[in-house]
Amino acid sequence: MDDMRAALYDRYGPPEVLYEGRVPVPGLRQGEVLVRVHATSVNGGELYGRAGRVRLVTGRRFPLRTGMDFAGEIARVDGAVKGLREGDRVWGLLGRTFGSAAEYVAVRPRQLSYAPVNISLVEAASLPAGTTAITALETKAGLKAGERLLVRGGAGGIGSVAVQLGKALGAHVTALAGGKNLDLVRELGADEAYSYTTTGPEDLGTFDVVLDTVGTEHRAFRRLLAPGGRMVSIAFDIDHPGASLSYLLASTVHGSRRVRFFSGNPKHDLFARLTRYVESGAIRPVVDTVHPLSGIAAAHRALEAGGVRGKHVIQVVPTSPEPGRRYRRLIPATNEAQALVRNTSAGPSVTLESRTGTTSG
């Protein structure tokens, strides 16, 4: 096992610059595990990276890699790691780097957690961005039962999880999404759903919490906050980054209706919490389309086209469902979903100790 398949690109540009190539299998450093990646998803930040819009971060040492999250099984464990075994099903995030669209990744245990047992690893790959929704609504906004929540981008990878989580936390959820996805967000739990093409901020009421996954019109949507309201933004306007980021930074310290802005980099405690939400049925995967690794360009092209329903998933290990199929399955919520929210929303996170004992790293 000297080399492996991976998604690469030799120059910045459109989706067509992506191709499936071969690179060395990453070596294990002390305290790391090697994960055989079954599937990964396509995230918005990867589009900007491939297009060269954040080249100060990505650099010019080509070929460059893509992919941020992963779902798979542990293939090798360094001797310094305790509590993890070969064959364990896990999911996680590389951190502030790219490279998970490949057959293997080497990570520290704090970057992963056990994957949910009630969904496939292909489905699991659609959900790591859900850690951002948990941080936004629970930690940053402190969403409470009975409050009014607005989710911009309610059918997207993060928004679809936020709609479900908001409902599980007892909020009245309003979602903005594309017109063809309104039935989907209602099925996920939205009490009200509106098309962003026909409904503007001026057409909506007031909200206790606004979650923005789009990155535009921050000022207009901030005006919708009720007294004491909180707005959390996980995106900025990539076409006007200076003005957008300046407004977000200023709004975090000025005014009665503050904006919380953050860039997620979750560790295993947060992934373990997401696992519990999924296993209870409170959060369910939404997969738009499954693509093979060789179809990475088509996946990027589809996400750039908009109208996404959940996540585009890259299947690395060939298992069912077959790559290239449209695919969406909503797992019915169990009776334990509300109990999970009541018992853990204010409590400590679950760590890897819950299944195999203490885990180092």
Quick overview:
With 361 residues, the chain is of the alpha/beta class.
Folded structure, characterized:
The protein is of the alpha/beta class and 361 residues long. It is 26% helix and 25% strand. It has helices spanning 44-51, 55-58, 121-124, 130-140, 159-168, 182-187, 218-222, 241-251, 268-280, 296-305, 336-344, 353-356, and strands at residues 3-9, 18-24, 33-41, 64-65, 69-77, 89-93, 104-107, 112-114, 148-152, 172-177, 192-195, 207-212, 225-233, 259-261, 287-292, 311-315. Strands 3, 5, 6, 7, 8, 15 and 16 form a 7-stranded mixed beta sheet that branches. Strand 12 (207-212), helix 7 and strand 13 (225-233) form a beta-alpha-beta unit. Helix 4 crosses helix 5 (159-168) and helix 4 packs across helix 9 (268-280). The radius of gyration is 20 Å and the shape is globular. It starts with a strand and ends in a 5-residue tail after the last helix. The model is unreliable at 242-248 and 325-361 (pLDDT under 50).
SSE topology:
Layout: E1 3-9, E2 18-24, E3 33-41, H1 44-51, H2 55-58, E4 64-65, E5 69-77, E6 89-93, E7 104-107, E8 112-114, H3 121-124, H4 130-140, E9 148-152, H5 159-168, E10 172-177, H6 182-187, E11 192-195, E12 207-212, H7 218-222, E13 225-233, H8 241-251, E14 259-261, H9 268-280, E15 287-292, H10 296-305, E16 311-315, H11 336-344, H12 353-356
Parallel strand pairs: 9-10, 9-12, 10-11, 12-13, 13-14, 15-16
Antiparallel strand pairs: 1-2, 1-4, 3-5, 3-7, 3-16, 5-6, 6-8
Helix pairs in contact: 4-5, 4-9
